[in-house]
């Protein structure tokens, strides 16, 4: 059950959040402009809440009617998770992508996977609460939302998320990694599309839209006469092959060096400000 | 060199000038503005000292309306996001589609590595600058595995005896065998052309970055010809936000900027010529006294009002007021001032036109003015305006 | 800068009031031009956000696109403008025409009237040009749906925007430009581009007419022009709204409009919900609207120069050719071929020369300016010898070559042998025979009349002016058979001049303002 307009509102909110953040720290900025941006952000968030509320109400009305064919079961398992905690949604999005990603993309992946939105405001507070939660009881949960770490000195990368359940090499980012990981995510999502086509049309639809967004920049995809999942898969694999080994090499080497860090640093990064327990991100 | 030991005398003098006023680093746009008014020492020194000219204007009692429209910010922000989203996916696609070979893309994400802390912005910027420098040097040396895309780079540039720290909105790429600056602007390109004011602005701004990159490499003893003077401008095509690439040749702009900087006195020379202890500090002064003091300091530094100042400098209203009060010929425009030459005020021009004795330097202009006055007198032309035919009176 | 102009401007600056720079008006004025005050939404440069349009100063029509980033809404406002423009053009084209005789051909039927557009400054001309560019091909690419009238009006607007740049043309009256041409204020041309700031020098009370209450109760009648200008120059009177207003009330009103319509672009919905934005934009446009008519009155107070009517006839001719071409289904290109560009340039150059010449010959101030710059001389006629004769060009017959002796107050800027024309009657052409400088400045010049001696000559005892200007026809320089390389577009630079501008995902979709269905479709 795709909610029309949800992705667009989510993106708008993402865009506005970044703008507010930039304007807030920009010494040149006009304070009145920041206020207006903030007001607009609040309006957009309110709109999305309204949209979701309407959809949820409609969904519960529809769910009351007879259960339809099993091909919708997979999609509705997503819908049934209405009320899934934010952190679970984010982790679901991260699992779908399989690579460290920026909040906006994670939110879109989360929505594709679970049918639930994630608001940027929620992402920001999640980063803080995950660290606090880990510190109070390390490893109580199977996975935490953590920042990706830079390959050199393991500084946490502001704005990029990963899952603590991933192997260390996957959570560090080297120079080749942004593009290489983008290609890996493209491949992974393409594989998901092919799986979903066998199981749920709605899910396949959502995954395909996500794939289109990721695959657009891979050479050969846009030029092809038709957008075709197999083609996108091959193109992404082709470009990845050029850098895969080198990227993995750098990240594996970094993973070895990470062992010298404390458990907290291994997950949340080194070079943290020791002020308020907030991750420097 | 910044960051190594005690500050050099120029930096110290600039800091003394700025006194307690908050530091506001000039950006490339400010620096490029030297071409508008190379003779205005005050502006150059204030920019070098990192003085916030808008707040100065407030204190002088002549604030100028500033402020950008939120609609422009929205469009610009959205466009930049479009280009950079998903690890520069669109940018990569555009560059490849334009024929640039893009093999392995190695990113240095300085914005993410060193997010700016509003409480102490210069710390992050200093680290970004240091990293940028190493990365550019590695780019130029062609080292294996060198970064080829810097996002959020910061460059330090000596623009005439003072160092400015520039945050590049643009991105530096090593593409093929050249290092290029990329600027992202959301104004529209229609029929292959765009608003020349906007394109010009982008060209001058990028020229500052190009000059800074060249200087950086030359300082490091490397061949700076690897820096391309062709800047890639990413703008939007037609009335949609579809990104498109435009190539701008800024070699002329770089040359002009350098020439202007060479010709003008260096900042240290300007500072050396000032009386000791010149400062913008107004501690203990009431509003009016403070305004007077600041006006004096500006005067001492040396302003050069031109009407074009009204389109870019927050101090323009103040300077215009002074120019009007003294009858500066620049009030009529640069052409008028150029034509009047040694005749420095409008009052003087009118005097000379009516036959007042002229200095040797004024002689030529005086003669022309007298002739012109004679022509107007002889022709018996009306002095005052005809009354407008008022619609409501008709 | 011309010393005469310098003096007039310096006098204006000193006195605090504008001064006349021309004795007469050199641009034709229609009593009821179509005045257009228009604003765009910040850097959304190819759409009207709001406009006040009309021929009646008391009854402007407000055209609004509350959300101009949504193409269909933007084309709503452009459609309204299109209707006004097309109606005006069609009415002029259908009105009884003037028969112009032609040799060996049936007479040409030239329109007797044409719409004249009145705008505040060059920036508005630019906006009109951009609107025309967007309206012309709209719909041909299938990205938007517009009535055909919009395409036609786009061609008209493009025509007008181009004519606005032709020297001497009166199809578009650019208020700040014409005021500066005919009057001098004591401020720079940069400041003069603000219509209110320029008008403030004419009568400080204008600022109260333009923005009632702007002086906060002060008596403005005794204000120096510069002071009055300072008060009004903060009020936007060009194509951009005040950024403070954008960031405050406008952005909220636009947001409420977008929330309320929830993606709908239906005209009735837009009209119903757009009231708040409309009110704000109307307030922003009214100062310019009022300024336009004050400018019109100010120019109208000057008596028209004689050749103004002939230039308007030329404009009527251009209008007729354009209107008929479009009516027959012609389409206007957006990008000139190299050849056409060269032709247009040559035409404009000769139009400029003719315009300069007409002003000098018909306006004392301009003549004085020409003398000050050495393009003309003025002196007392001390002697006229109408019967002087000399050997003609064939060497066999004697011909009459009257001699005129002029005493100039200053040096003669022309050498012996220079050709000059009498400003009173330009058929009379004379050659400088001799120049004898006088002791204390000044010179005695003898001119030999070589053409046009069959009419009146300057009279002794009067003063006479001779200049480089004459009204003989000079053809355009013939174009070289091959387009010079300077006029070729560089290879690999296709100028696709008929592309629809709305050829991609719309900004409103990317900002999340469009209905989801529109966003999907645009993908």
Number of helices of chain B: 15
Strand order of the largest sheet of chain A: 1-3-2-4
Major β-sheet of chain B, in short?
6 strands, mixed
Strand composition percent of chain A: 5-15%
Helix count of chain A equals: 11
Counting structural domains of chain A, the number is: 2
Supply the helix-strand structural class of chain A.
Answer: alpha+beta
Strand content of chain B: 5-15%
Task: Provide an overview of this structure.
The complex is a heterotrimer of chains A (281), B (394) and C (523). Chain A has 281 residues and is of the alpha+beta class. Chain A is 64% helix and 6% strand. Chain A folds into two domains: 1-66; 70-268, no CATH class. In chain A, strands 1-3-2-4 form a four-stranded mixed β-sheet. The longest helix of chain A is centred in the first third of the chain and has 34 residues, at 31-64. Chain A starts with 5 loop residues before the first helix and ends in a 13-residue tail after the last helix. With 394 residues, chain B is α/β, with parallel strands linked by helices. Chain B folds into three domains: 9-66 and 283-326, no CATH class; 70-261, no CATH class; 336-378, no CATH class. Chain B has helices at 9-18, 28-32, 41-49, 53-59, 70-97, 110-113, 121-141, 196-219, 251-263, 267-272, 287-301, 316-326, 334-340, 346-353, 363-378; strands at residues 107-109, 149-151, 154-158, 163-167, 171-175, 178-189, 230-237, 242-249. In chain B, α8 (196-219) links the parallel β6 and β7 (230-237). The radius of gyration of chain B is 25 Å and the shape is globular. The model of chain B is unreliable at 390-394 (pLDDT under 50). Chain C is α+β, with helices and mostly antiparallel strands and 523 residues long. Chain C has two domains: 3-21 and 29-335, no CATH class; 364-467. Chain C has a six-stranded antiparallel beta barrel. In chain C, strands 4-3-2-7-8 form a five-stranded mixed β-sheet. In chain C, a hairpin with a 2-residue loop joins β5 and β6 (105-111). In chain C, α2 (71-94) crosses α4 (148-163). The longest helix of chain C has 26 residues, at 275-300. Mean pLDDT of chain C is 90; it is low at 487-496 and 516-523. The chains are: A alpha+beta (281), B alpha/beta (394), C alpha+beta (523). The A-C interface holds A 4-5, 8-9, 11-12, 15, 30, 32-33, 36, 39-40, 43-44, 47 and C 244, 247-248, 251-252, 255, 259, 263, 509, 511-512, 514-517, 519.
């Amino acid at each position: 059950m795709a909610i029309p307009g949800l992705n667009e509102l989510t993106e708008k909110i993402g865009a506005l959040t970044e703008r507010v953040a930039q304007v807030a720290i920009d010494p040149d900025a006009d304070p009145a402009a920041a206020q207006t941006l903030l007001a607009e952000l609040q309006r957009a968030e309110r709109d999305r809440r309204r949209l979701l509320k309407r959809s949820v109400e409609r969904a519960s009305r529809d769910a009351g009617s007879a259960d339809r064919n099993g091909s919708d079961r997979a999609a509705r398992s997503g819908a049934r998770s209405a009320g899934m905690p934010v952190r679970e949604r984010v982790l679901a999005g991260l699992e779908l992508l399989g690579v460290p990603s920026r909040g906006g993309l994670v939110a879109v992946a989360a929505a594709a996977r679970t049918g639930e939105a994630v608001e940027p405001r929620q992402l920001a507070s999640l980063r803080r609460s995950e660290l606090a939660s880990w510190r109070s009881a390390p490893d109580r949960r199977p996975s935490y939302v953590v920042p990706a770490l830079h390959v050199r000195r393991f500084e946490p990368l502001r704005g990029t998320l990963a899952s603590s359940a991933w192997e260390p090499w996957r959570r560090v980012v080297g120079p080749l990694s942004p593009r290489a990981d983008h290609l890996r995510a493209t491949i992974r999502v393409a594989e998901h599309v092919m799986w979903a086509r066998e199981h749920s049309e709605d899910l396949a639809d959502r995954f395909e839209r996500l794939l289109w967004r990721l695959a657009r920049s891979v050479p050969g995809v846009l030029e092809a006469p038709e957008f075709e999942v197999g083609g996108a898969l091959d193109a992404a694999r082709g470009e990845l092959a050029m850098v895969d080994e080198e990227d993995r090499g750098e990240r594996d080497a970094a993973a070895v060096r990470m062992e010298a860090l404390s458990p907290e640093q291994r997950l949340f990064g080194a070079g943290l400000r020791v002020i308020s327990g907030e991750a420097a991100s | 060199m910044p960051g190594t030991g005690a500050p050099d005398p120029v930096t110290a003098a600039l800091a003394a000038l700025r006194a307690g006023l908050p530091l506001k680093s000039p950006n490339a746009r400010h620096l490029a503005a030297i071409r508008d008014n190379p003779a205005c020492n005050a502006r150059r020194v204030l920019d070098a000292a990192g003085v916030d000219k808008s707040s100065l204007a407030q204190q002088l009692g002549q604030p100028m309306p500033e402020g950008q429209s939120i609609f422009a910010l929205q469009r610009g922000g959205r466009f930049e996001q479009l280009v950079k989203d998903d690890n520069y996916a669109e940018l990569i696609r555009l560059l490849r589609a334009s024929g640039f070979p893009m093999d392995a893309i190695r990113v240095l994400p300085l914005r993410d590595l060193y997010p700016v802390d509003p409480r102490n912005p210069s710390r992050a910027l200093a680290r970004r600058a240091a990293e940028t420098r190493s990365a550019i040097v590695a780019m130029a040396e062609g080292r294996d595995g060198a970064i080829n895309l810097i996002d959020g780079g910061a460059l330090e540039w000596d623009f005439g005896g003072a160092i400015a720290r520039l945050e590049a909105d643009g991105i530096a790429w090593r593409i093929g065998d050249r290092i290029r600056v990329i600027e992202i602007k959301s104004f529209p390109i229609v029929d292959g052309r765009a608003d020349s004011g906007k394109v010009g602005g982008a060209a001058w701004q990028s020229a500052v970055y190009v000059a800074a990159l060249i200087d950086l490499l030359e300082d490091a003893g490397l061949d700076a010809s690897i820096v391309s003077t062709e800047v890639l401008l990413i703008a939007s095509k037609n009335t949609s936000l579809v990104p498109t690439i435009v190539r701008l040749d800024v070699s002329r702009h770089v040359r002009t900027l350098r020439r202007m900087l060479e010709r003008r006195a260096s900042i240290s020379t300007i500072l050396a010529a000032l009386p000791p202890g010149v400062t913008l500090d107004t501690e203990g002064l009431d509003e009016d006294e403070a305004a007077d003091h600041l006006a004096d300091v500006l005067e001492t530094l040396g302003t050069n009002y031109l009407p074009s100042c009204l389109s870019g400098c927050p101090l323009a209203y103040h300077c215009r007021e002074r120019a009007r009060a003294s009858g500066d010929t620049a009030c009529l425009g640069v052409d008028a001032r150029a034509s009047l030459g040694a005749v420095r005020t409008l009052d003087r021009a009118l005097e000379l036109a009516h036959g007042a004795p002229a200095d040797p330097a004024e002689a030529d202009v005086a003669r022309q003015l007298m002739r012109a006055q004679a022509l107007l007198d002889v022709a018996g032309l009306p002095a005052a305006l005809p009354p407008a035919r008022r619609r409501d009176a008709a | 800068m011309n010393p005469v102009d310098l003096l007039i401007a310096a006098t204006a600056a000193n006195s605090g009031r504008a001064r006349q720079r021309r004795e007469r008006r050199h641009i034709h004025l229609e009593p009821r031009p179509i005045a257009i005050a228009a604003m765009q939404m910040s850097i959304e440069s190819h759409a009207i956000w709001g406009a006040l349009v009309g021929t009646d100063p008391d009854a402007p029509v407000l055209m609004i696109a509350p959300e101009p980033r949504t193409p269909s809404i933007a084309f709503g406002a452009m459609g309204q403008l299109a209707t006004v423009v097309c109606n005006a053009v069609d009415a002029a084209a259908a009105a009884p025409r003037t028969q112009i005789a032609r040799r060996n051909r049936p007479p040409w039927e030239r329109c007797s009237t044409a719409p004249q557009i009145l705008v505040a400054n060059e920036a508005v001309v630019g906006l009109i040009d951009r609107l025309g560019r967007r309206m012309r091909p709209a719909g041909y690419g299938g990205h938007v749906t517009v009535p055909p009238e919009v395409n036609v009006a786009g061609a008209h607007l493009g025509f007008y925007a181009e004519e606005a740049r032709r020297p001497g043309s009166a199809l578009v009256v650019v208020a700040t430009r014409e005021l500066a041409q005919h009057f001098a204020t004591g401020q720079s041309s940069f400041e003069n581009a603000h219509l209110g700031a320029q008008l403030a020098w004419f009568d400080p009370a204008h600022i109260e007419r333009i923005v009632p209450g702007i002086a906060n109760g002060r008596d403005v009648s005794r204000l120096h022009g510069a002071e009055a200008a300072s008060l009004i120059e903060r009020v936007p009177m060009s194509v951009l709204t005040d950024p403070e207003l954008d960031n405050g009330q406008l952005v909220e009103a636009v947001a409420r409009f977008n929330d309320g319509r929830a993606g709908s672009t239906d005209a009735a919905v837009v009209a119903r919900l757009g009231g708040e934005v409309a009110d704000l934009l109307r307030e922003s446009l009214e100062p310019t609207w009022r300024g336009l008519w004050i400018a019109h009155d100010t120019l109208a107070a000057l008596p028209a120069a004689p050749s103004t009517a002939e230039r308007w006839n030329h404009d009527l001719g251009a209008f007729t050719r354009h209107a008929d071409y479009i009516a027959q289904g012609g389409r206007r290109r957006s990008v000139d071929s190299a050849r056409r560009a060269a032709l247009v340039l040559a035409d404009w150059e000769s139009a400029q020369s003719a315009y300069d010449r007409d002003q000098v010959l018909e306006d004392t101030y301009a003549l004085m300016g020409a003398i000050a710059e050495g393009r003309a001389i003025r002196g007392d006629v001390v002697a006229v010898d109408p019967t002087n004769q000399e050997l003609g060009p064939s060497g066999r017959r004697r011909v009459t070559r009257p001699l005129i002796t002029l005493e100039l107050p200053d040096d003669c800027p022309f050498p012996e042998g220079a050709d000059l024309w009498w400003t009173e009657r330009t058929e009379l052409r004379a050659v400088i025979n001799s120049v004898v400088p006088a002791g204390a400045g000044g010179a005695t010049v003898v001119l030999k009349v070589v053409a046009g001696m069959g009419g009146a000559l300057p009279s002794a005892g009067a003063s006479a002016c001779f200049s480089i200007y004459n009204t003989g026809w000079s053809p355009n320089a013939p174009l070289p058979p091959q387009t010079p390389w300077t006029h070729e577009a560089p290879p690999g630079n296709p100028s696709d001049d008929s592309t629809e501008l709305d050829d991609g995902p719309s900004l409103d979709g990317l900002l999340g303002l469009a209905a989801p269905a529109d966003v999907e479709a645009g993908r």
